[in-house]
Amino acid sequence: MAKDDITKSFKFIGTRPNRPDGFEKVTGRAKYGADISAVGMLHGAVLRSPYAHARIKSINFEKAAKLDGVKAIITRDDFPKDREGEPLKLLENTIAGEIAYYDGHAIAAVAATSVFTAKEALKEIEVEYEVLPHVIDVDEAMKPDAPIVRKNAGDFSVPEGSSPNVASYIEFGRGDITNGFDKADIVKSGLFKTEAAHQGYIEPHACMAQLDHNGQGEMWVCTQGHWYIRQMCSEVLDLEASKLCVTPSEIGGGFGGKTTIFIEPLALALSKKSGGRPVKIVMSRSEVLRATGPTASASMDVKIGMTKDGYLTAGCVEFRMQGGAFGGSPVSEALQCAFASYNMEAVHHIGFDVLANRPRAAAYRAPGSPMAAFAVESLIDEMCTDLDLDPIDVRLMNAVAEGSKSSYGPKFKKIGLIETLEATKEHPNYSIELGANQGRGVAAGYWMNHGGETSVSVSLAEDGSVNVSVGTPDIGGSRASIALMTAETYGIPYDSVRVNILETGALGFNEPTHGSRATLASGKAVYEAANQTIAEMCRRVAKKWQIDPDAVYWENGYAKPAGPNAGDFTPISIKQIASEMDQTGGPIAGHHESSIRGVGHSFGVHIADVEVDPETGRVTVLRYLVAQDAGRAVHPSYVEGQFQGGAVQGIGWALNEEYVYGEDGCLQNAAFLDYRIPVASDLPNIDTIIVEVPNPDHPFGVRGVGETGIAPPLPALANAVAAATKVRLRSLPMSPTKVLKALKTGNDGC
Amino acid sequence: MNKIHVKTNINGDQVEFLADSRETLLDCLRDHVGLTGSKEGCGTGDCGACSCIFDGELVSSCLVLGVEAEGKSIETIEGMAGQEDLHPLQKKFIEMAALQCGFCTPGILVAAKALLEKNNNPTETEVRYWLAGNLCRCTGYDKIIKAVMETAKDIRETA
User: Fold this and answer.
1) What value of ipTM does the predicted structure carry?
2) Each residue of A275-292: pLDDT tens digit?
3) Do B101 and B139 fall within a single domain?
4) Among B22, B44, B76, whose Cβ lies nearest the Cβ of A285?
5) B39, B101: one domain
């Protein structure tokens, strides 16, 4: 395992202090999306389509409007008519126009003095629908005679003769594929399928919004990115962005699903129509499952060539993914991840983004990577079994390293796949003996990570403590990691730093907490901003000492004389500098704005041990190991938490979770009882290994750790089930019914 | 509008509110009493984020009507910490990073406290099954289970 020397010189990074927001979160005081109310506030409720695809012939809300307490009713008529491109898609998904495109699509919304009145009003709205043919399955939607979801939805990239439901097409690769397969001793191909899964954050979407007739407004909302909310709401409602102030609440999970808008423009429009009264909308769980943004479902063909020694010679994939009625499946990312872990001379990728009568897909943790991993890592495992090769050894032989040109283009800088594979192989879990009906599965996963637009400020308080202001909501402990990096930069105690998450008016544009970027990007920006203040403090001390600013350096919270002046002056503490600020030039603050570059590519390797009950088909996870390169684990407990949480979401996707549709195209399991995410009694402990191969482009070596962990569980569990049963499942989830059928008939589920 | 006058005891305080007969106890706690620590994750008793103690019994407060609180004694997350210090479970959850987003945390803490009051020496399996009605999507439960086990150990050692 590559722990480099820098680790030893850190004072705070790598320690595990209590998170700064822990007290509020264990006492119930932290305010989430639905926890805020205002004087004069109205309650909003949304009428949703009961059909998968229907023309809206008329909406009559006369009776509803007459109910006592109803203050505003909105339909698509209350929104701008001139939107185009992405803003039009956002608007269409926010509230249907002429056509409802999926079960749960918003049709109208009501604001009333109580939740009950608003819901009663919904029942009084009369909508006349003309039901249209629908399509749910991605392969069905690809057929030439499939029901058309939206006319003229295909962009310039779509090949002639494609189904009208193909929204975009992507193709790339390198090397001589035919030659690559010729070099192989075995060539294997397979069809793999995954069903849509939901992020399953426990906090339903909630917001409180206020909008005046002059276009000035405010919003309180649970979101991963409030600038995105501001931008999208402004585009949908034709507002000036700077006039809308968006404040993020604490956020009860997001995993990518809270990076876009759903109810937010409705709350603003209802507020405006009711004379500027604040309007709160809180989604029910059923609304969350029906009408937010689950991930795509996928149908994937894979073909791989391997020598008898285990070298990968060539690989082809064709991925078809439906991302709902407006396109936007993560097929491009899936293709980029497909072969990213391996050195392969010849690779070819084809992808189709396909429309279906389902809600518009949103991001879900490493979007696209889990499906790609399921297809590719399963097939590699099948080949390892055929050739009787160790699955970790085969991955080690083919693993990308520093200098490798990735399967989708970029050349890797320093990366830690080999170190991660080695750590996994050495872990005791890999050699524990298994019993009857038990099997072990190995799989790797990749995510490219993301930097993104970032704006932060840092200011010195009058007592020498430090305020850090960032725009990335804290979704899993980032206040702690940012405070640790700040403390490290200044050399002041962790407790002397307070990290605040500010509203949209207080900083420049910030992308959301997405792409595993909060600790990486806000941390890098805070480091730059803090160093500005350190330079300013050194300048002021130099003036006091009447020496050149370059002759003053900063160490452990003190300005110290350097070089020839060393020993001439007593070092001055940050506390003292702060207490004299008013006489030395006023407040001391730093800020940094940029599109953060230098992300560190992230690799993980998982080992799953399972037992399959031959009578019921139930798969029990016996033990589970996650090894992943964190670059640098700023707060190791929260890094482990990301590994464990990602793994369990992947386990859920592999074993239980799926969107189940009826023949009518309506979602049949829109509740937590039926959309079953893993519960504590389903799981063992999730063992972790934090591998640290520092990212050379980050001041503290951070790579970003949030997303990779969800990709390997899908294939790791499929590989473990295959090892336990000698039957290969190529379709997820591996529910007891499907496993039992496979045991009886050998059917792979596709 | 026919509202019902409810007198109850919440976290040791006498509380009165007017409830619509359709409102759940969770609605009343959040909207009438201002105790928003109990969360609604599902409204159907599946997620446990609204867990409260109702006359000594662990309940999902989204499945109890607000008017049922009449004359009863209710404990919520807001009543868990002492005046001087946090409850040992609260402290341990922070120390062991047993929360990420924190949304499920109040319900899990209330449920875990109920367990440890019945049994301060649970096995890991017992903890996992006791908390099987409390969904957490962030942590994979690992650190939650370990924090409850560690707290139980501390409680036994100091008893």
Assistant:
1) 0.98
2) 999 999 999 999 999 999
3) yes
4) B44
5) no
